[in-house]
Amino acid sequence: MFAAASLLFVPGSRPxxxxxAKAAGAGLTVIDLEDAVAADDKAAARAAALGQVAEAPxxxxxxINAVRTAAGVRxxxxxxxxxxxxxxxxxxxxxxxxxxxVIAGALxxxxxxxxxxxxxxxxxxxxxxxxxxxxxxxxxFGGGDFSGELGVELAWExxxxxRQQLLLACAEAGKPAIDVPFIRLEDxxxxxxxxxxxxxxxxxxxAAIHPTQLPAIxxxxxxxxxxxxxxxxxxxxxxxxxxxxxxxxxxxxxxxxIIRYRALVTRHEEQANA
Length: 274
What we know:
- The strands form two sheets. The protein has an eight-stranded parallel β-barrel with strand order 1-2-3-4-5-6-7-8, surrounded by four helices. It has a two-stranded antiparallel ribbon with strand order 9-10.
- The chain is an alpha/beta fold.
- It is built from twelve helices and ten strands.
- The protein is globular, with a radius of gyration of 19 Å.
């Protein structure tokens, strides 16, 4: 199960930044070959990304270009020939589960975990099938492109309905959902607010485009010691009560709340061991 609370993107065209990005402490460090890289720089970025993975594969992900583009085809061909693959591949502009089947088929048993990005209304319409596809570890909301498709600002309210639809699809498929990066780098309060809102409606992680964004994201998405302690106390009380509804800290504790508490403890343990 995908357990990271944060993803940090670093341009593949800036290998001088790879080590600094990795040291920032994100749950997953993503070398980006897509939006952050100009067309003329994609070949060099691809080589740099695969070189970094070959040197030290653990903890790295690569965002390739969309598989329906020429750059994406070249990325996939290079991955097929590469002696080392990253732990995770992010796949942008996924609109059908078949897009992921192409990757899984080309890489075979070596295929890493996949994180498709839902960035269009068509992709959102097929989100459950995409999230349910083989090798999918989590699904990311590509809010930037989605806002462009709708002709709206990349902000909370205009994209709330799309976020909620994606979360429902991911919940049905049993996969975590990752929220879009917050693009206003100087707005720390805005980032903290959006991260808290994203967690409150069901996202499991949020992407970042700068290392300075990670503390606010972790504060929102990593369970606090108090939350973990409460969850463990509730689980123990429920078990001691024979698995029946009981009174706990002034409120009723029954099966639906136990599911949430169990998920919180499991996620905390997974993150601690990541």
